[in-house]
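Q: My collaborator sent me two sequences in one message, no labels, and asked for predicted structures for both. Can we handle them in order? The first one she listed is below.
A: Yes, handling them in the order given. First sequence, followed by its structure tokens:
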Amino acid sequence: MTVNTIYRGVQGNSSAQFAIGDAFTTAQNNDDSLNITKPERITNVAALRLLDKTKINSAETNGYYTAGDGGHGEYWYDATDTTTADNSFTVIVGADGARWKLLSEDGEVNVKSFGAVGDGVTDDSVAIQAALNSGTLSVVIPDGTFLCDNLLMPATFGFVLRGNGVSSRLKQKSSANPLIRWSTASINYTEGYIKDLAFIGTNGGNNTINTAGVGGLTLQNLYFTDVPTGYSSVYVNGAAATYVHDTRLKNIQIYSNLAGSAGIRFGALVADTTLDGFI
């Protein structure tokens, strides 16, 4: 079983959590036991692929594509792994076959470390989905405008998708998909959060956020520009013929010039939902 991601704790006697495949092991702050040295500073992921594993076992990039693009990350060489495929995100395979693993501070990752650009033109869906699938407990959308759609949220308990407020913008693509959705095979109660983000639904062809399939969700401090024509910025409903409970909407602001449906719409399978601070 190989280590795919390490979650580094704070210095001292606090515990650090390591993701090992689908299992989790808790240990004391273990940088020393993994023999991870002070990281080598390099320019980008392309430079990471060229490192010599016999001389360097940890590296910190100054960016994903170019230095200063916000996609910096810290990686460590897993000498026990010779088979995991390169996914361009959490596992980078070097020219010498080394498996470099992304190190996540306190279980939180930035989508730019997965190749998201945030220029409002580049389709960042794949990069953001990779961050959501990385197994971390928190994904950060930094400042910028990230064009995307059909993002499938994880069913991880306590998962958080967050930004920095109105400067962190998700721009809905022109497609028949919602921007954010969950699996509707059943209802998962995650007690998760989506917070401190802005959304642009001008070109959307479906609801911006469709919560069908998730319960115990909190949507907080969200700002929407333009309700997709004929749809809603937030659609709350159950799934699989089952009521959803305990959805909390707090401080939701919606401004639209489009002929959308209600900014927030509740389906027939909704119970125990609160709405506080809607403008």
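Q: And the one she listed second?
A: Here it is, processed independently of the first:
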Amino acid sequence: MKKITLLLIFICILTGCKKAEEKTIKEQKEETKVITYKMPEKYESRPLTEEYKIITLDKDVTITSPGTYFLTGKSSDITITIDTSDTVELILSNLFITNTNKEIIKVKNTKELLITLNKKNKLITNDISTIISEEIINIGGSGSLDIISNDTGIVSTKDLIIESGKLNITSTKEAIKSDKSIYIFDTNLKIETQEDSIKSKEAILIKNGKFNIKSGEDAIKTNWDLIIDNGKFDIKTVDDAIKSDNELIINDGNINILECNEGIESTKVKINNGNIKIKSS
């Protein structure tokens, strides 16, 4: 009887352990964060309309109605604030603004802010980010935008999309930063930063384009998935060149990592095609 009793107790202990283990696994699965994403559709034409309002840049401006707005000329120490429930488009055309202690474009509320680049544009800020948004930002157009910031260049708490144009960003902190996902395609992007260059908490998706990056920390970094469909990359960085905390997929592209500590870093790496050169110190 003693042997049978001991055997039953042993079985009960094992069964209890198994149930506890199953419960732990179930709890872990429930706590796992699942993020889904897809490449946004590009706007067929920009600007969205030929009818637009011209903004006079002699003082701070708050846009409270949706629509398309045209900005041009030189100014200093002004902020364009977006605060409306629907989509706003800003056309930048030969725009030059220098600010000392306040952002140039600030998005408080909108369905989406479209920044359409026409001709050459330059935004300079000191001790504060140049473009700050609490909503989705979509940058594109046939023109160019130079950003010089003694802080972060472009920062958004939601998705950040760059679908065309030419951007040249010099910053002491991150050049492009999002608390959600970053989508970049068909863009000529030149970045020089003292910290991370392109950084997001969720996914980074890159399709086509030309990238010249010089970074004081990581060049391209995400806390989630990173997908490169194509593009030409020249990267010099002090730390990691391309880093994902979850899965990194390279489907194609010419990636030339000229200087780095680690070239490609991720929990899972999948390279389907492309030409990759890495020079690590």
